[in-house]
Structures are given as structure tokens and as C-alpha cells.
Design brief:
Elements: E1 7-14, H1 18-29, E2 34-37, H2 46-49, H3 70-75, H4 85-98, E3 105-106, E4 111-117, E5 122-127, E6 132-140, E7 162-165, E8 180-184, H5 188-200, E9 203-208, E10 214-216, H6 224-232, H7 234-242, H8 264-277, H9 293-310, H10 314-320, E11 333-335, H11 338-341, E12 347-351, E13 357-360, E14 364-367, E15 371-373, E16 376-379, H12 388-391, E17 394-396, H13 403-406, E18 425-427, H14 440-460, E19 465-468, H15 470-485, H16 515-527, E20 533-536
Parallel strand pairs: 1-2, 1-6, 2-3, 4-17, 6-18, 7-16, 8-9, 8-16, 9-12, 10-11
Antiparallel strand pairs: 4-5, 5-6, 13-14, 14-15, 19-20
The chain binds ligand NA7.
Ligand NA7 binds next to helix 5.
Cofactor: FAD
GO molecular function: monooxygenase activity
Family: Belongs to the FAD-binding monooxygenase family.
């Protein structure tokens, strides 16, 4: 143990991404002592690690920004409609410097254990540097997509070339010129990186397990008129963002009627308009796409017809359009030249449903039918979403209860903010909140502000702890499931459902009722004196 052992502070925050940085800013305003513990050697979280070629946000840059500081908003200029990973990382570094946040961040340190001391109502935190920190409150800002899915293919350790993970990309620039590259996985990370890698590599082999639905991003330099509009009429734009179910300002062409009542011509017109505008709002073309199977098929068919029109080889087009889940029920991707990349001579799509990977050999990837000789294998295989980072820490609450055991059948939370038997432990965008189904920054700010208000309330009223009750938690879990069951989400094997990780319990880990409804529930709970929470004093 070093000299920092058994240090006492008010608040510990785990993680220095978008949520941790803003939480630190707010806790400091309360005048409490606070420290962030961060495993990386810099700020950024998701945007620190995911440095793969083409990494970019799928929410427009002006909306994927903090709202809390007028000067920050006025000073900062985004260069593109959708910001690239390096630009977002620059933004977060700028924020850290501007608000002098680094002095309260301890980098290159990982929290390994968090134990609740019931007598003192404090969390004892242990790190991989063997430090012990005692904090009254522990706030998990650990991210929803931060723990890579473990891949253990037969023979992986025998491969003589390079293995990369998009989610843990090296910090040096890698050039694939003259090389043969395999990319495994066709979610957002694969879809963003494949077109760029194909421009460099001698040959790219894409191994597709499930085809995604991808909509053109139509990315480009940020329109100065749009930027001006946001800078001048910020409150108006913000009102629209906060009034939308997904925390994004939807374009005026969005229809608030169901596809099922539209004629086929009307459907095509709306889809075509949204396709030309580009981006995730395609999925809101009609208001029943995520609820009604027939409606959903009309949107899925439209995207498939676009793919067939772009991709020249019919076999490849067929593989790219063999999605077997409703569009929108796995995260829709947005891309730049993804489908057109398959028209290049140096790109081959391998459909793993027809020839699955048998093993990795010293020279490449062996499937049922072929051996693909490659110099590099890139895994774009996704994350242990929502619960991975929380369960990687040994968290022990009241009466020795372990979070890992409590969540063995799936995460149970109240509002996705707290879990019963774990007093004073907050989660930012935890499972059971709208989080990944919304603009993350909107959801992060809402949670940070809710937690800040709560900490202030506890202090003013001399409470030592707050904890979700079992009854409130059970009711919330039931509500989250009931809402999900009224949609098409449970029908897809998505990471929203935990279905991308073998053995992970299959439950909907996201509140799909929308940001507006959720926000109101959170406000009402506070207005009703923290309904569903137990507030206690020590003695
Ligand atoms: P995703 O969206 O989870 O995509 C992972 C992809 O990797 C997906 O196509 C998977 O197929 C595929 N996959 C996963 N495991 C394997 C194995 N073992 N073999 C072959 N293929 C596999 O992760 P991303 O990083 O692309 O994107 C994550 C989020 O970041 C995204 O949703 C945006 O919000 C930003 P599957 O679909 O499981 O059949």
C-alpha cells in the first residue's frame, strides 16, 4: 500500500468519459471532495479507446455535445456534421482543461473492489495500485459499451500476423497498405472501418455473422448556417431535443403517423426523403416502426432495395440483405460508402451463416469451405454492453450482498440509477434507463443533474444514505419489461437484450419508453420526496 491508503473523500467517481467528467464538475460545485479513478492515461472513456480507422459518432456533433456551459458551446466549433473520434477526444480534453478537471482525476488506476461499510455508510474502494479510498458516495461512470466482448476462437493464439480489436485500437497509426486484412463483425465499428481499410489494403475479407441495416450518414463539413442557428437559437433547439423521445432533434420531414395507414407511395416517399437526409432519424420515418411488424417490414424492405441497387454482385447483395430481425431493434448503423465498398475488387464478403469459422490458423482464417490467408485480423465484435463494466468490479453492498450474484438473472435497478441493497452507489446511464437508445449526452446530463440534486438534498437534510427499496425496484423492472414487450425489441438478438454474449441472461436492459417519459418519472419521484428510495441517518 502506498501513502494514499485509507484516504477519506466525499465522492468517488469511476471513469473519466463524458459522464465522469461532467459529474466531477457538478460535485465540485457542491463543494464536496471528489476524485475520479480512471484506468486509461487520458480522459475520454469510449472515445479514448475506440480509435479504429473511421471511428465516428452516429449522433450529429452539435447535439453530441454538453449543454451545461454557455461559453463552452460558444467557443467550440465542430468541423463536421458527425464528429470523428479524434475530434471528440479533443473536445473532451478541451473540457478537462477548461474546467481544470485533471487535478481531481487519478489516471492509470482501475477500481477493483467496492465494499459498503454499513456502520459508517461509506464505500471502501480498492484499486489495482492497492490503494484504499473511503468515500461516502460512489458513482459509476463506467460506460455502457466499455468492456469488449471476449473472443476465444480455436487457434487464435497460433496466428502469426497481427490481431486488433476496434475497441482497443493501438495508439500508433497503422497502415494496411499492401496487406491482407480480415475484419470480423459488421456492427457500427466494422461498417465505419471497412471502407477506410479497403482504401489501403491489398485485400479485405469481411466476415459477417449478421448483416446490419445501415443508412447513409451524408457526412461532410458542418453547414455554417446550421451551426449559426444552433449558436443563436440554442434554447429553441434544446427544447426540441429535450422534447424528443430519443434526445435528438428530429427533422421536419418526420411523420408522426403510422406506416400502416400510409399508402405504399407515401411510405416510399417518406423513406426516400429520410434516406436522402441521412442518419439515425430514418427509424422515426413513421411512428409504428418499432412496434408493428408489418410496418417495420416496409422500412426494412426499402433499405434492402437500396442495398441491392448499390451492390453489383447479386450474391453479396443477398448476404447483405439477409437481416433476420426488425430494423431498429439492433442499433441502426450510419455509414459513408459502406455498401459501395463491396463493389471494389479488393473486398470479399464471407457470409458466416453459409461457411462458419472453424478455426484461426497460423496463416489466417479457416472456414468450412476455405482458408483465407491474411496478415491482420481485426475483431469488430462488440461489447459486453450495459452490465460488463459494473460487474467487472467486485461490488459488495449491504449484508455482504454481491452485485454479481444479485444480477445473475439480469440487472435489476430502480430507474437505472440505483440498485437495492447498495446504498449511496449511483450509476450513470445504468441498465434500466433509456441510455443507449437515446443521445447519450442528453441522458448523461440528465442523470448527472439528478444525482447532483440528490447529493445536495441528502446533505441539506442530514441524511447519511439513500437506497432504492426492493418494492420500487421490482416495480421498475416490471415496467421496463412491460414497455419492452409492447415493442419489437425483444424479438432481436441484440446487445440491448444481452443476446450477443453467450450465457448472458436475456432481458431488456434499456428503458424503451423514451427520454421524455423517463425524465418526467425521475422528476416526479424527486417531487414526491424521493419516492421509492429509503433515506436514512446513522446512529
Ligand atoms: P456491435 O454492434 O455489437 O457489432 C458486433 C458485430 O460483431 C456484429 O456484427 C456481431 O454479429 C459480430 N460478432 C460478434 N461476435 C462474433 C463472432 N464470435 N464471430 C463473428 N462475428 C461476431 O458492436 P460495434 O462495436 O460494431 O458497435 C457497438 C456500438 O457502438 C454501436 O451499436 C453504436 O452504438 C456504437 P451478431 O450481430 O452478434 O450476429
Amino acid at each position: 500500500q502506498n501513502d494514499k491508503s485509507s484516504e477519506k473523500i466525499d465522492v468517488i467517481i469511476v471513469g473519466a468519459g463524458f459522464s465522469g467528467l461532467y459529474m466531477l464538475y457538478r460535485v465540485r460545485e457542491l463543494g464536496m471532495t471528489v476524485r475520479i479513478i480512471e484506468a486509461a492515461d487520458g480522459v475520454g472513456g469510449t472515445w479514448y479507446w475506440n480509435r479504429y480507422p473511421g471511428a465516428r459518432c452516429d449522433i450529429e456533433s452539435l447535439q453530441y455535445s454538453y449543454s451545461f456551459s454557455d461559453t463552452l458551446r460558444e467557443e467550440w466549433h465542430w468541423s463536421e456534421r458527425y464528429a470523428s473520434q479524434p475530434e471528440i477526444l479533443n473536445y473532451l480534453n478541451y473540457v478537462a482543461d477548461k474546467f481544470d478537471l485533471r487535478k481531481d482525476i487519478q489516471f492509470q488506476t482501475r477500481v477493483t473492489t467496492a465494499n459498503f461499510d454499513e456502520t459508517l455508510s461509506r464505500w471502501n474502494i480498492q484499486t489495482d495500485n492497492n490503494e484504499q479510498i473511503s468515500a461516502k458516495f460512489c458513482i459509476m461512470a463506467t460506460g455502457c459499451l466499455s468492456v469488449p466482448k471476449k473472443i476465444d476462437l480455436k487457434g487464435m493464439d497460433t496466428f502469426k500476423g497481427n490481431i486488433y480489436y476496434t475497441s482497443q485500437w493501438p495508439h500508433t497509426s497503422i497502415n494496411f497498405t499492401g496487406q491482407r486484412v480480415a475484419v470480423i463483425g459488421t456492427g457500427s465499428s466494422g461498417i465505419q472501418s471497412i471502407p477506410i481499410i479497403a482504401q489501403q489494403a491489398d485485400h479485405v475479407y469481411v466476415f459477417q455473422q449478421t448483416p446490419s441495416f445501415s443508412i447513409p450518414a451524408h457526412n461532410g463539413p458542418l453547414d455554417t448556417k446550421v451551426e449559426q442557428s444552433w449558436k443563436i437559437n440554442y434554447d429553441e433547439h434544446r427544447r426540441k431535443v429535450l422534447g424528443s423521445s430519443f434526445g435528438v432533434e428530429v427533422n421536419d420531414m418526420i411523420s408522426d403517423k403510422p406506416a400502416t395507414t400510409a399508402t405504399s407511395e407515401e411510405q416510399q416517399e417518406v423513406y426516400e426523403t429520410q434516406w436522402q437526409i441521412g442518419g439515425l432519424t430514418f427509424i422515426f420515418s413513421f411512428n409504428d416502426l418499432l412496434f408493428n411488424k408489418e410496418a417495420n417490414i416496409t422500412a426494412a424492405d426499402f433499405v434492402s432495395s437500396k442495398i441491392r441497387a448499390i451492390v453489383k454482385d447479386p450474391m453479396t447483395a443477398e448476404s447483405l440483405t439477409s437481416q433476420d430481425y426488425p430494423i431498429g431493434c439492433k442499433r441502426v448503423c450510419i455509414d459513408t460508402n459502406y455498401y459501395d465498398t463491396y463493389n471494389r475488387n479488393n473486398v470479399t464478403l464471407i457470409n458466416l451463416r453459409k461457411e462458419n469459422i472453424e478455426e484461426i490458423t497460423t496463416i489466417g482464417i479457416k472456414t468450412k469451405n476455405n482458408i483465407y490467408q491474411v496478415d491482420n485480423i481485426i475483431f469488430a465484435t462488440g461489447f459486453d454492453a450495459m452490465t460488463g463494466a459494473l460487474l467487472n468490479i467486485n461490488i459488495q453492498g449491504r449484508s455482504g450482498n454481491k452485485l454479481k450474484e444479485k444480477w445473475i438473472k439480469g440487472p435489476c435497478t430502480y430507474l437505472g440509477i440505483m440498485t437495492a441493497d447498495f446504498p449511496n452507489l449511483f450509476m450513470i446511464t445504468g441498465p434500466g434507463s433509456p441510455s443507449v437508445l437515446t443521445n447519450m449526452i442528453v441522458s448523461i446530463e440528465q442523470h448527472v443533474e439528478w444525482i447532483t440534486e440528490c447529493l445536495d438534498y441528502l446533505r441539506k437534510h442530514h441524511y447519511d444514505s439513500i437506497e432504492a427499496t426492493n418494492e420500487a425496484e421490482d416495480a421498475w423492472v416490471n415496467q421496463v419489461n412491460a414497455i419492452a414487450n409492447a415493442t419489437l425489441f425483444p424479438t432481436a438478438n441484440s446487445w440491448y437484450m444481452g443476446a450477443n454474449i453467450p450465457g448472458k441472461p436475456r432481458v431488456c436492459m434499456v428503458y424503451v419508453g423514451g427520454f421524455v417519459a423517463y425524465h418526467k418519472i425521475c422528476q416526479d419521484i424527486v417531487a414526491n420526496g424521493y419516492e421509492g428510495f429509503q433515506l436514512m441517518k446513522n446512529n
